Amino acid sequence: MKKILLSIASVAAVAVTNAQDINLPAPDFSQPSTSTIEALRTRHSVRSFTNKELTNQQLSNLCWAACGQSRDAQHITAPTAMNKQEIRLFVFTKNGAFEYIAKDNKLVKKADGDHRSLIAGGKQFKQDFVMDCPVSLLMVIDFEKFGSQDSHAQMMGCVDAGIVSENINLYCQSVGLATVPRATHDTEGLKALLGLGDKQLPILNNPVGFEKK
Ligand SMILES: Cc1cc2nc3c(=O)[nH]c(=O)nc-3n(C[C@H](O)[C@H](O)[C@H](O)COP(=O)(O)O)c2cc1C
Q: Residue ranges per domain, the chain?
């Protein structure tokens, strides 16, 4: 009897965990947007946000633009050195921290609760406007995926994260969302929260929302 109850409990625990993941709607490739030229001309960093939430459709479109699957299952919207795809994207909201899994178009929950203050900054320097942003996207270099952590790999990881961030910058500008690329965050706090090791490095983030004018 005890054995049966235990196995029911463990099945229930898995169901709860899975229930906390978010299956995103398919990205909308026909959403209204400005031209690339216009996005390049007008892109600017925003540091003042309303607390208006993004819909799951907007979140899906945003994550896809950052590093979603593109022309086939082997490629993503951001080019990466040797197509290593070593940049992992984490999504922070007031409800939790999630990892974006491009192939499944899904957000997998990594932590419950509001951890946006780790994105805002650490003890040395913090930018409080991040707490107003409904979503922050964190780029993490995964050297395990790259296959090396030497100086060349570190340089390529930084370049590849920058490209993901610029995808976000230009996408936001083209659809009326606001963002700013940031290198400020609590690196050690984020690593502990997300269960990252020495071979993963949080490197850049983009808070995303609606500009307070
Ligand atoms: C790698 C990088 C790191 C940055 N880090 C921060 C940051 O921590 N906080 C911030 O407010 N802005 C940050 N910025 C934004 C820059 O300050 C901003 O892009 C620059 O002033 C030019 O303004 P613009 O983006 O409006 O053209 C960063 C930008 C880059 C590219």
A: 22-209
- 81: exposed, middle or buried (C-beta count within 10 Å: 0-12, 13-18, 19+)? middle
Q: Where does 22-209 sit in CATH, by number?
A: 3.40.109.10
Question: Cα of 206 to ligand 1 centre, how many Å?
Answer: 10
Which atom of ligand 1 is nearest the CA belonging to 121?
8
- pTM for the whole structure: 0.92
Pocket perturbation via mutation, ligand 1, pick of 126, 133, 169, 180 by most ligand atoms within 8 A of CB:
180
Which residues of the chain carry a pLDDT beneath 50? 6, 9-17
Tokens encoding 97: 């921290």
